[in-house]
Specification:
The active site is at residue 77. Its cofactor is Zn(2+). One of its GO terms (cellular component) is cytoplasm. There is one protein chain. The protein has 160 residues and is of the alpha/beta class. The protein has helices at 6-18, 53-56, 76-86, 104-113, 124-128, 134-141; strands at 29-34, 37-43, 95-100, 117-122, 145-148. It is 32% helix and 18% strand. It has a five-stranded mixed beta sheet, sandwiched between helices. Helix 4 (104-113) links the parallel strand 3 (95-100) and strand 4 (117-122). Helix 4 packs parallel to helix 6. The protein is globular. It starts with 5 loop residues before the first helix and ends in a 12-residue tail after the last strand.
Length: 160
């Protein structure tokens, strides 16, 4: 029997977490790890105690801001980081697994909090129709290791 490596375990968990999202546009999951241990998990969606977009606004989702982004959503990587910090877990030197490459705003948070490696599955730029992944470029410029996850994971959620 072959044992799965930790990259596969953590990315599969990120994919499964994405399925918890209430967003009607995109489901994203994140796993924050350090030394082969899980520090925190997250998925994109509104803050606890607000609206679940797929339930409250099933046809349109939540309102959009001036750039067309959700006004309620917290990104998966933000949720994972916020939960870790809220619970006094050190994220310095950690690795983040995420199903969608970080946007520029998330990249700035990732760098600032001390995450040293990001492993992502899909391009944020391709999803948004942008010319390049600004978040990944930012992370690389400032020394955060960025790795595209190279394996296919089977899932039945078309929004991942």
């Amino acid at each position: 029997m072959s044992r799965p490596n930790f990259d596969d375990i953590f990315m599969e968990l990120a994919v499964n977490l994405a399925k918890r999202s209430h967003c009607i546009k995109k489901h994203v999951g994140a796993v924050l790890t350090k030394d082969t241990r899980i520090i925190s998990i997250g998925y994109n969606g509104p803050p606890a105690g607000t609206h679940n977009c797929d339930e409250e606004f099933p046809d349109t989702g939540c309102a959009r801001d001036s750039k067309g982004s959700c006004t309620l959503a917290i990104h998966a990587e933000q949720n994972a980081i916020l939960y870790a910090v809220k619970n006094n877990a050190s994220v310095d030197g950690s690795t983040l697994y995420v199903t969608l490459a970080p946007c520029l705003a998330c990249a700035r948070i990732i760098y600032s909090i001390g995450i040293v490696k990001v492993i992502y599955m899909y391009s944020y730029a391709e999803y948004k129709g942008l010319p390049h992944d600004e978040g990944l470029a930012f992370l690389e410029k400032f020394g955060v290791e960025v790795v595209k996850y190279g394996k296919e994971i089977q899932f039945d959620d078309p929004l991942i």
